[in-house]
Amino acid sequence: MKYKSFGKTGVKVSELIFGTWYLPNQVIGGKREVNKSSSIKLIKKAYDLGINFFDTADVYRGVYDRDTFLTNFEKVGLAEKIVGEALKGYDRESFVISTKVMGKTGPLPNDSGASRKHVRSAIRKSLERLKMEYVDFYMVHGPDEDSGIEQTAKTMNILEEEGLILHYGISNHSAHNIIKFLNLRYFEPLEPPSFIQDKYNLIERELENTNIKVAEENSLASMIYSPLAQGVLAGRYTKDVSKDSRKEYEKWFEKNRLQEENRASLDRFNEVAKSKQVTMSQLALSWLMHRGKYLFPIIGATKVEQLEENVQSTDLVLEREEVDSLTSLFKVANR
Ligand SMILES: NC(=O)c1ccc[n+]([C@@H]2O[C@H](COP(=O)([O-])OP(=O)(O)OC[C@H]3O[C@@H](n4cnc5c(N)ncnc54)[C@H](OP(=O)(O)O)[C@@H]3O)[C@@H](O)[C@H]2O)c1
To answer: In this predicted structure, what is the pLDDT of residue 45?
Structure first.
């Protein structure tokens, strides 16, 4: 595993981040639940493979159910608890953690948002669940029109001063918002965010010329989520291996433009991977890592084999022409 600076923070992180939105799971009494012991093993495996960066969120339950997401808070923070348990006993300085605030974590009116009131309460709860004294990278999970960016930035700066977080970032904000945050440094004595977290992959490239570009131009690190389009770019749905996949059990699984318009591109992509003697997921992750200096894919996995396969992507070196040719392979779908 190679390590590089997380944008201008200077913190050395692994080229790949391990994400905990979906963790290994099983069906118990007709209900899909996180398999805690497999999840802990998987996180430890990621650590053993050299990943030193783990991404979670206060709202993550390890299994996503959109139907009950806004009404059932029983399992809120379960992923944070599992991350904390898995990394307990390791030197705290040997890994970095990112977590998030904003999503609804309870039934009260102030159980969500980016207000100082909620953020202060949320960081305390996240730290309790993680059983840690500080979070390296804390982010606002989405925009909050009510709270205002000045307040959010100031609250994050206070948490930094108090040592509860080291750096803050923003996720799922518009490019316009990212620029507004960055401009705060000129008008207020506020430290701007150090990183963003957004969706970007070969198929879903809507943010390529907006958020990703703004981040690159301003040396912000970009944590890239769904780098495999939730498994589509790993060939999860083109090979006959879709059994027990996310698509099978998540009612609202986004199709990620999986359908006709992309099938031909996926087939060609598979051929290129074969010719290079790598897998589709390795090629898709490598493409991302070659697309920018500070792009860090957050990989999701529900099986050790997936993790082992994906980690090998960091050894793959692509020529400039190869990167460009892959970029244009999915052009039709991105028109
Ligand atoms: N900020 C946000 O709003 C936001 C949103 C989404 C995600 N995230 C973060 O980003 C992380 C990653 O997102 P993601 O899970 O969507 O990423 P992803 O890497 O695009 O998808 C991961 C899924 O792809 C399949 N997969 C992975 N490797 C495979 C392989 N080698 N062969 C076959 N299938 C493979 C698995 O699906 P199966 O589970 O079906 O086996 C795995 O769970 C999340 O855990 C979370 O930390 C953040």
So the answer is: 98
DSSP 294: T
63-111 confidence digits (pLDDT tens): 988 888 889 999 999 999 999 999 999 999 999 999 999 999 999 999 9
Q: Is 25 in the pocket of ligand 1 (CB under 6 A)?
A: no
Here the tokens at position 115 are: 């207000």
Q: What is the DSSP string of 213-282?
A: HHHHHTT-EEEEE-TTGGGGGGTTTTSS--TT-HHHH-TT---TT-SHHHHHHHHHHHHHHHHTT--HHH
User: What's the pLDDT score for residue 258?
Assistant: 64
Residue 129 CB less than 6 A away from ligand 1: no
Give the span between the Cα atoms of 80 and 135, in whole angstroms: 11
Question: Token digits for 236?
Answer: 């999860």
User: How high is the pLDDT of residue 333?
Assistant: 47
Residue numbers of the chain with a pLDDT score lower than 70: 239-241, 255-260, 332-335
Query: Which residues, 6 or more positions from 65, have their beta carbon under 8 angstroms from its beta carbon?
Result: 32, 72, 250
pTM confidence score = 0.96
Q: How far apart are CA 231 and CA 254, in angstroms?
A: 11
DSSP 167: E
Q: Per CATH, which fold does 3-231+289-314 belong to?
A: TIM Barrel (3.20.20)
Q: Is the CB of 200 under 6 A from ligand 1?
A: no
The set of long-range contacts for 64-72, using a CB threshold of 8 Å and a minimum separation of 24, is: 64/21, 64/22, 64/250, 65/32, 65/250, 66/250, 66/251, 66/252, 67/251, 69/104, 70/104
Distance 185 CA to ligand 1 centre (A): 34
